[in-house]
Amino acid sequence: MTHPDIIIIGAGPAGMTAARIAAEGGLQVLLLDEQPRAGGQIFRDAAQNGDRRAWLGQEYRAGAALALALDHPHIDHRPGARVWRIEAGPRVVWSNGEASHVAAAPHVLIASGAQERPVPFPGWTLPGVMTAGAAQILMKTSGMLPRRAVLAGSGPLLYLVAAQMIAAGCPPLALVETQSLPMLLRAAPHLPKALFGAKTLVKGLGLLARIRAAGVPRHTGASNFCASEDQDGRIAFRFQAKGRAQRIACDLLLTHQGVIPSTHISRSAGIDHAWSRAQVAFQPVCDDWGRTGRDGLYVAGDGAGIGGADAAAAAGEMAALDILRSSGRISEDARDQRSAPARAALFRARAIRPFLDAAYSPPADILSPPDETIVCRCEELSAGAIRQGIAEGAGGPRQIKTALRAGMGPCQGRMCEGTIRGILANGDASEMARIDPPRARTPVTPVRLGELATLKTRLEQSA
User: Fold this and answer.
1) Which fold has domain 369-424?
2) pTM to 2 decimals?
3) What's the CA gap between 41 and 64, in Å, rounded?
4) Confidence band, pLDDT 50/70/90 cuts, at residue 47
């Protein structure tokens, strides 16, 4: 596609929905996604799996319709495209294979989704310790099932993965959950509003019922996670629960502490970001239509604030409708009328978030782990080394990055940035708001020199 009307970055629920709405409205859509197939994390490979993996659930299979709708003459879907720069114009630069490309459009929608919050503790870098989301990717893409696994942390995803494992015939050995009764009591005032999202509440209760019926032990109020390798080569997972030291031997340890917006692309594009105290993360500043303070740039989906798949799809639809209005394809009144169902769906999906955010907030010992914990996996820096750097005068993320190289590895801070902020705030989530995020510089994903060279050639030819 030579001259797209809109470039969409990310083919999850928000990106796929926006692409369909924009294409049906007559816009030429360039859809860039890093994955080999559309779907995002929640609907990954849904169109290919069909009913082969029924244990993933009906809602997962329903995502196939979104992916199949991308087969439209106005949609140019580029799988395997790694976007690494957004320039004024706006122009988008990405790599695919061994070459880099550039395209400009009047509108760019960033639908980059979310990433799992890192769960650092002593031993989290051991083989066999991975995030629950990573395990779910293997379940969806390869049909690989996590056997003799423990699920540890908090958040609705733990219950979903546990239920999927039970349906697949490999129930988890245990759920070790950090949420506690005080967290639930703090969340209780948000329950009346959460009833607008009753469908999600009922789904969560159903997952818990399946876990109980399968006889999976649950340890709540857990803390002080620690993993090591036992004499049999298995993982020895230790933690505190109800005032007692606990130990579980397992083959896999799957961790999770919720998800946070993926903001490297939006930050590198110069979009303003604000701290969300409820979600303990930064998120882009945008209005209800996804419009940001940068001309032509929109953000939708979990990359604009965690809301889940239904909220992401609704936000993608609203952004696409506003772009159709801005392009002169529909009037403002038509946009408002057509967006009414999406706005209602977005309200229902978001209504439950304050309750979930309060009930499953990350604990202090995860935000600011013990000294022996590896924080920056790329540079193998421990929490103790970070604290020593702070004591010697590194008073913020940028100074820590300069002095210790934390965040300068291939992940570019995705795995350590939040933890460094937590250490600076001594694990106090309310204090983390005062610590600005370091600027995300391009390229926001590693790029080979050969790819840069091809980009230069392409720009010279187009000039």
Assistant:
1) Arc Repressor Mutant, subunit A (1.10.10)
2) 0.94
3) 13
4) confident
